[in-house]
Amino acid sequence: MAQEFNGDRLRESRYFRHYSISQLAEKVGVSKQMISKYEKNLSKPSSEVLQKIIFELKFPLSFYQTKDKFITTDLGTFYRSKLTSSQTEKKSSEMLKKALALLANFFEDYVDFPKLAEFESHENASPEEVANQIRKSWGLGDSPISSVLRLLETNGFHIAIINSKSEKVDAFGSFVELKMETDSERYYCILIDQDNNNFFRQQFSLAHELGHWALHARTLHPQELSNIEYRQMEQEANRFASSFLLPASAFSEDLKGHEEDLAYYLKLKSKWNVSIASMIYRAKDLGLLNSEQYTRLQKRMSARGWRREEPEDASIPVSRPILAKQAYKLLTDAGLFEKQSIVQRFNLKYGYPLPVEILSELMDIPKETLLQERNNIVHLKSRAL
Q1: Buried b (16+ CB within 10 A) or exposed e, 131-155
Q2: What average pLDDT score do residues 261-271 get?
Q3: Coil, strand or helix: which one is 2?
Q4: Are the beta carbons of 60 and 353 closer than 8 angstroms?
Q5: How far is CA 197 from CA 30, 205, 208, 219, in A?
Q6: Nearest-CA neighbor of 116 among 202, 191, 189?
Q7: How far apart are CA 265 and CA 167, in angstroms?
Q8: What whole-number distance in Å separates Cα of residue 342 and Cα of residue 68?
């Protein structure tokens, strides 16, 4: 009996590896029309062509021979990216977002993750008012935030650092609704590109994504917006991030009397964990700088080369997610993966056999660790896993 072939999975893996239909067709030696037929389930590749597809796209054979045991609903992804980024560049990251939600669901069978609280902003509230509302509900007061990433994980967001393979995609996030046979769950997943390798840049990117969650995720589908509407949405998320990281009263008091002193901004950088450029922007937004003062500071930043790289940029390591890594260690220590690896258990539950490299990247765990064989001959009795 001929094996099943899942054309949807071919399209998904092709997008992930940034191949066009024409490029994949040339690599595997068939026409682009034939690749299109494979993806539409109108034809099946021969064994020889399938082996070439596996070699080129580096997904396991079983990925193309199985079907999802779950349903995900696309609720719209908010990209912190240039408007010139193509849909193909964005689609390659959608698989990672889905896989991150699946990992969260997998671990929740065994561990208690922080729950994402329900949030409703006041009607017609400005980005600054919403930022203040979240600070109040999370008990932050007017204090600086030492790590936005850790704060978000503590409050129920699922985050991964990835290689988006795009110079134009900084970060992205959205709700992912996951339906299984017996239940359904909703997760808010944020993925940030590894090129966000500056702690202060990462702080703003994650606060920007938090702004999309607070301001837009329940009411807007970003892929349906016009360019003008998209720009406005991005500006609102930027204003939220600026307000969230630098609360008006406390920051204004700190800056008072030093509004045009770049050396003083550098001093405040280590307190507020925010870039000098972002502080100058915030000072102008708060009316602490007029247009002439703002322009002078921008010119001085450029003259010193601080627009490309600021002093102390490398003073704090980039924050890294820990939720999945901690969950994996807990379950490994408890012996869950002695007979079946996490890769095998994940594939069995979801019918979604991803390359190990993807799970490794999303959990921030070396691939070799996930592939490590379990050769235990004896085991504890009555294991409750």
Answers
A1: bbbbbeeeeeeeebbebbbbbbbeb
A2: 97
A3: coil
A4: yes
A5: 40, 11, 16, 31
A6: 189
A7: 29
A8: 18
Q: Return the structure tokens found at 32.
A: 């682009």
State the Cα–Cα distance between residues 372 and 385, nearest whole angstrom: 20
Please provide the size of the chain in residues: 385
Give the global pTM. 0.91
CA distances from 92 to 73, 161, 194 (A): 17, 15, 15
Beta-carbon contacts of 303 under 8 Å, excluding residues fewer than 6 positions away, are none
pLDDT in tens, 21-80: 999 999 999 999 999 999 999 999 999 999 999 999 999 999 999 999 999 987 788 876
| DSSP calls for 266-328 | HHHHHHHT--HHHHHHHHHHTTSS-HHHHHHHHHHHHHTTTTT--TTTTSSPPP---HHHHHH
- Name 284's Cβ contacts closer than 8 Å, sequence gap at least 6: 290, 291, 293, 294
Angstrom distance (rounded) from CA 294 to CA 130: 26
First to last CA, the chain: 37
User: What span, in angstroms and rounded, lies between the C-alpha atoms of 181 and 78?
Assistant: 28
The residue type found at 373 is E
* Alpha helices by DSSP H, the chain: 7-16, 21-28, 32-39, 47-57, 61-65, 87-107, 127-137, 148-154, 199-215, 227-245, 248-255, 262-272, 276-285, 291-303, 323-333, 342-350, 356-363, 367-371
Q: What is the dihedral of CA 129, 135, 138, 139, to 10 degrees?
A: -130
- Indicate left, alpha or beta for 58 from its phi (over 0: left) and psi (-120 to 50: alpha): left
The CB-side HSE value for 139 (13 A sphere, CA atoms) comes to 3
pLDDT (tens digit per residue) in 122-161: 778 999 999 999 999 999 999 999 999 999 999 999 999 9
Positive or negative, the Cα torsion across 209, 210, 212, 213?
positive
68, with CB counted inside 10 A (0-12, 13-18, 19+), is middle
Q: How far is 230 from 117, CA to CA, in rounded Å?
A: 26
